[in-house]
Amino acid sequence: MTCVPNDPESGPSRRALLVAGAGAALASGCAPAAVPAAPAPTASGSASSSQAAGDPTPGAMTLFKNPGYNFNALLALGAAGAGAAEVGEVLTAVNAINKAGLSAQTYVETFRNLGDQLLKPPPGPQADDQTKRFRSLRAAQYYGQALFFVLGSDTPGSEEQLYKAGRGAWDTFCDLCEPAAVKATVPYGTTPLPVWFFRPDESNTPRPTVILTNGSDGQNVDMWTYGVPAALERGWNALVYDGPGQGQLLFVDRVVFTPTWEKVVAPLIDWLSARPEVDTGKIALTGLSMAGDLVPRAGAFEPRIAALVAMPGCVEPWLGFPPEIRQILTPTKEETNTIWNKEVAPHLPAEAAAVMKKRFEPFSVPAMLEARQGKLFTDFYTPATRIQALTITSVVGRIKAPTLVLDYEDEQFYPGQARRLYDQLTSPKDYVKLTAAQGAQLHCSPMAPQLHCEVVFDWLQKTLAAR
């Protein structure tokens, strides 16, 4: 799309084009090729009219008419297979939100209240540790659901508190695992990385180990859904961690994403290598969502990684933003921020502004703090250039480890990028595309995490068995 001068004689102004395009794309889920909005669901959760042709979430997969909210709710629903949600709880919450009127406020309130309820003693006999364990895991899921949209709600300043509620539930769950997850911190610059190390038993038998890497807005509970049980069931260890721009490092320590992810992974491998339960020749690294870019970057510079999985493959996270947003960025900070503050930001619809707050906060502490005050950030240039710096096209050829690249039918954030990563790899490689016929469409297969894990861990098992 070409910007045109702000001249009434020459057609629409750049501001009008940017705001119209960016607002529509952001409100549809911030994807370059937005998922079409579905008809409004009825109170039963099914669509009120026939679905549009090509709708990637037909029938029962349409929980909300807004694709962004729908995608997040599908992640919660899909997590039920790993015990990280309950189908009845999620659908009841969905119906309550639709009845009240879908908004960030109703979404946040409903899921936060659900998390609160699960941390209270259940009715009937006193809950045993197993019940408390999985109620805490589900609470972590629901707090994470609320956290995702809190910046667009009436209480954006509660973001850190809401994160801590989810973190507390997650830690309770980890303490009640059998054996309990090892909780520790790993040195990283001036801000250590929190880690949770899961083992099948306490025998100290050296085992293959997978390091599970989250994306730009996931929580620890998502790493449970997308890998920990699958690893344990195969006799593997699994390491979950918060890196820069994630979890504790973002919401509490205020450390944003770094493009040099190998410097994050290296101390994790150092820590694992000192443990007797770890077979140091069989350490794998997986990356979900935007970590499908971070993990290949780490693999390009960290030779101790025995296998890589990018879920999905990604080489330019900046392309995950609509073109109308990307063209705001110019070579100079002054010009960029002038365009943003004078021509775009004042005219963005509230929903689109909330998406921008969420998408930019992992790359800018000032943007995060302004969002918590209900304000839209004024410095577009700094976080945008940090996102651009995550581009890995120049280093993919350095990767030596066997690599599995996942892709998804109807991938809405990084379409085409998985294939680009696969084509650029020179190491042993495999490409798998999960499909709508499997119920595994959309970014990260939100409705099919069990199938997702089967594909990933079957490949890892085969790959590391050859070492």
Strand elements, count:
8
What structural class do the secondary elements suggest? alpha/beta
Series of secondary-structure elements, N-terminal to C-terminal: HHHHHHEEEHHEHHEHEHHHHHEHEH
C-alpha geometry? globular
Radius of gyration using CA atoms only: 22 Å
Percent of residues in helices comes to 40-55%
Low-confidence stretches: 1-12, 30-52
How many strands, which pairing sense, and closed or not: the largest β-sheet? 8 strands, mixed
Report how far the terminal alpha carbons are from each other: 49 Å
Average pLDDT metric: 91
Strand order of the biggest β-sheet: 1-2-4-3-5-6-7-8
**Percent in strands:** 5-15%
Number of helices in the DSSP assignment:
18
Please describe what this structure looks like.
This protein has 467 residues and is α/β, with parallel strands linked by helices. Helix content is 43%, strand content 11%. The chain contains 18 helices and eight strands. An eight-stranded mixed β-sheet has the order 1-2-4-3-5-6-7-8, with helices on both faces. A hairpin with a 6-residue loop joins strand 1 and strand 2. The longest helix has 21 residues, at 129-149. It is globular, with a radius of gyration of 22 Å.
